[in-house]
Design a protein that fits this description.
This protein is α+β, with helices and mostly antiparallel strands. About 20% of the residues lie in helices and about 30% in strands. The chain has a four-stranded mixed sheet. Strand 12 (about 220) and strand 13 (about 225-235) form a beta hairpin. Helix 1 packs antiparallel against helix 2 and helix 2 (about 30-45) packs across helix 5.
Length: about 375
């Protein structure tokens, strides 16, 4: 414990010394100062340091930390000069998209998925370095393209197939468990460390699942809040209503409006703590919003008896004073999408700027027949 404290003290002293030297306010380089600060954040945290030693920058997801563990130490004890990366490189990551339902994101779920990856035929066999490319996986090829002209190009080593090692490989079907945590969102990633191709001489890459949320038939999500539509009758809208709402976890919520409370079309109410659970803190939930839709009589009419009852119960409309010169018109059902279809008026002629008919000036105009 004492050694660890002493080592941590040395790191802190070195950081302070370099921070003062390279601080932008003291004339230092801002990029170098940021690298020193990020390096200190890794070294001063045991968990981050272990992750970085094993997985590198991708494991930390820090977005710009030094490229190797040796680089971090050299910043504090090697004059701040970057060293060449040592040790095995990390293999390529494999990214898959996985479809999830809103209920999966609400309740959490573990999905089993199969992938194909490359593994050695004999895991106990020690890989033999390729002599042709010296484990690089590529080699330089020279060819003549003209008199006195040659071209050098980098090609995949045909001796090892680009692996850098001579070892027999095979395709393996591998079953993985993707743990979808409560409150995760569309586009969020689930990273399974070291589950990609097991290539010799490399640290296995990661398998990354990207969540793709499918539309839900009842609920819509906006961050940690939910929205659903509820259709009620005209009587319920005027006199109050109650209904059961089945939630994403199967619970039945009994929802009521106050007696005598009038619900208008598009009216919205909310219920606290019935939205989506917060990721990493599922005991805290957002709100559930309910948007009301009013179902009017299906045939668009009501009986004279019903009209009489409603006129007695509901407030009477304000009287309309009809002047003598008022013209009575007929209103018909219409579709707003047809608005503007009758350009220039029904049956009217189109005139140019001089007032002449577009069909020919000076000619006799066609008149509508009078019946």
């Amino acid at each position: 414990m004492a050694d660890a404290r002493c080592w941590g003290s040395d790191i802190k002293k070195a950081y302070r010394k370099l921070a003062v030297k390279h601080h932008p306010d003291k004339g230092g380089d801002e990029a170098t100062f940021k690298e020193i600060t990020r390096a200190y954040e890794v070294l001063s945290n045991e968990e981050k340091r272990q992750i970085y030693d094993q997985y590198g920058e991708e494991g930390l997801e820090s977005g710009g930390a030094p490229q190797s563990a040796n680089d971090i130490f050299s910043m504090f004890f090697g004059g701040g000069r970057r060293q060449k990366q040592t040790g095995p490189k990390k293999g390529e990551d494999v990214v898959h998209q996985i479809s999830v339902d809103l209920a999966d994101l609400y309740n959490g779920k573990v999905k089993k998925l199969a992938i194909n990856r490359k593994v050695p035929v004999n895991p106990d066999e020690k890989p033999k370095a390729c002599d042709a490319c010296d484990t690089r996986g590529v080699r330089m090829m020279t060819r003549q393209i003209g008199p006195g002209m040659i071209q050098q190009m980098q090609v995949v080593c045909d001796n090892c197939g680009g692996m850098g090692y001579q070892v027999k490989m095979k395709q393996e079907r591998h079953i993985l468990e993707c743990n979808i945590e409560k409150g995760m969102k569309h586009g969020q990633k689930v990273v399974l460390r070291g589950e990609a191709d097991q290539l010799p001489g490399t640290i296995p890459g990661d398998v990354i699942f990207v969540l793709a949320m499918e539309p839900h038939s009842r609920f819509q999500r906006n961050n940690d809040d939910l929205l659903c539509a509820q259709r009620i009758t005209l009587v319920e809208a005027l006199c109050g209503c109650q209904f059961l709402l089945e939630h994403l976890d199967g619970r039945k919520l009994l929802c009521k409006t106050r007696p005598g409370e009038v619900i208008k079309p598009g009216h919205i109410k909310s219920i606290d703590e019935e939205g989506m659970p917060m990721h990493k803190n599922p005991f805290v939930k957002g709100k559930l919003y309910i948007k009301f839709d009013i179902a009017f009589p299906a045939d668009g009419t009501i009986s004279p008896q019903a009209m009489t009852i409603l006129e007695k119960c509901l407030p009477k409309p304000a009287p309309v004073q009809v002047p003598m010169d008022a013209e009575e018109v007929v209103m018909r059902n219409a579709d707003i999408s047809s608005m503007g279809a009758n350009a220039g008026g029904r049956g009217g002629s189109h005139l140019d700027e001089d007032g002449d008919d577009e069909m020919g000036g000076g000619g006799q105009r066609v008149q509508c027949a009078q019946q």
